[in-house]
Write a structure and sequence with these properties.
The protein is α/β, with parallel strands linked by helices. It contains twelve helices and 14 strands. The chain has two domains: 199 residues, Isopropylmalate Dehydrogenase (3-Layer(aba) Sandwich); 139 residues, Isopropylmalate Dehydrogenase (3-Layer(aba) Sandwich). It has a ten-stranded mixed sheet, sandwiched between helices. The structure holds 1,4-dihydronicotinamide adenine dinucleotide (NAI) and magnesium ion. This is 3-isopropylmalate dehydrogenase.
Length: 357
């Protein structure tokens, strides 16, 4: 097929890791006979330097008319002294908002080749870890009104409102079931329905949505138990769907047990006619920028998610993920995942090895 991809390298190591993902994409195009129209645009600090704002209208136009957006990272000391209203990170929030991204997909996969970097006991990870957390991104206690701090009966009272409308639960549940269909067809919905009214509605709506996906095995779990099971028996999970607050915590927990931030991809997906947004979990890493030290794997795995979820190219996505695993299996490591006896490589070498694989 023929696809339009907006490419936003951003700042710091962003352009370095995105360049390697683009190399991989061009191999995918050749091998599987697709044409990818790459549409580069300024974003973040780079856009502030060229046009005064982090998410210029021209960049927005490029993104919204593309099938998907591949993004590196933004920010850095150069822009830290600017007014918060025009900081690079503001551009990211504006992009997510423009994309209507209500579902954040964060895989936590332990490559067996990197099992030594895992914090969990070897017997616990013997069967591997391959979890995808689907976190609702634009609702819940982070946005619920009323919220504030006021004086009541002579003391300060703080309050935030955990609130979900059923359409907000339904649409993220649908993303989670669709995602489960493309994976192991097991979905665990995480809530606190034994205590919270909002969670009782969450559970009801997820159970209603399940009727449309008879092939997916749905279970429910309380969030405190889920936090425990993630470290006790992570192999029990395939896809997890949960609200914004619980998902914030559980996605970091799930990611941390698998190793380096340089390995972690993410996707933010949403509305029917808006592009999915794919980016590494890490930031612009100014401490290693410009030195060919960054690990490009998080961005290359984000590209695999783009192929799988926005373009429906699962064989292509599988090929990219298999290439990453093959290169790790041969012992090649960037600094963040290096240990004695392995072969240390830089960002461009890692990207090239994955292309060759
Ligand atoms: P960071 O994720 O950029 O770096 C944290 C640590 O991890 C650093 O030691 C860095 O060298 C290392 N690291 C990160 N990515 C790596 C990779 N691919 N390979 C090897 N090592 C890697 O977070 P930090 O230092 O808190 O923030 C730096 C800048 O990035 C700030 O301006 C921050 O606002 C911005 N940021 C941007 C994000 C985004 O664009 N989505 C997300 C997080 C931070
Ligand atoms: Mg977090």
């Amino acid at each position: 097929g023929s696809y339009k991809i907006a490419v936003l390298p951003g700042d710091g190591i962003g352009p370095e890791v995105v360049a390697e993902a683009v190399k991989v994409l061009s191999i995918v195009g050749k091998k599987f006979h697709h044409s990818f129209d790459l549409r580069y645009a300024d974003f973040g600090g780079a856009a502030i330097d060229s046009s005064g704002v982090p998410f210029p209208p021209a960049t927005q136009e490029v993104c919204m008319s593309s099938d998907a957006v591949l993004f590196g990272a933004v920010g850095g000391p150069k822009w830290d002294t600017l007014d918060p209203a025009i900081r690079p990170e503001k551009g990211l929030l504006a992009l997510r908002k423009a994309a209507g991204a209500f579902a954040n997909l964060r895989p936590a996969k332990l490559f067996s080749e990197l099992a030594d970097a895992c914090y969990l006991r070897p017997d616990i990870v013997a069967n591997g870890i391959d979890i995808l957390v689907v976190r609702e991104l634009i609702g819940d206690v982070y946005f619920g009104e009323p919220s504030g701090i006021e004086v009541r009966d002579g003391e300060r009272v703080g309050f935030s409102n955990m609130i979900y409308a059923e359409h907000e639960i339904r649409r993220v549940a649908e993303v989670a079931f669709e995602t489960a269909m493309k994976r192991g067809k097991r979905l665990c919905s995480v809530d606190k329905a034994n205590v919270l009214a909002v969670s009782r509605l969450w559970r009801e709506v997820v159970t209603e949505v399940a009727k449309g996906y008879p092939e997916v095995e749905l279970s429910h779990m309380y969030v405190d138990n889920a936090a425990m099971q993630l470290v006790r028996n992570p192999a029990a999970f395939d896809v997890i769907v949960t609200g914004n607050l619980f998902g914030d915590i559980l996605s970091d927990e799930a990611a941390a047990i698998t190793g380096s931030i340089g390995m972690l991809p993410s996707a933010s997906v949403g509305g029917a006619n808006t592009p999915g947004l794919y980016e590494p979990v890490h930031g612009s890493a100014p401490d290693i920028a410009g030195q060919n030290l960054a690990n490009p794997v998080a961005t290359i795995l984000s590209l695999a998610m783009l192929l799988r979820y926005s373009l429906n190219l699962s064989a292509e996505a599988d090929a990219v993920e298999a290439a990453v695993a093959a290169v790790l299996a041969k012992g090649y490591r960037t600094g963040d995942i290096y240990r004695d006896g392995m072969k240390r490589v830089g960002c461009t070498e890692m990207g090239q090895l994955i292309c060759d694989a």
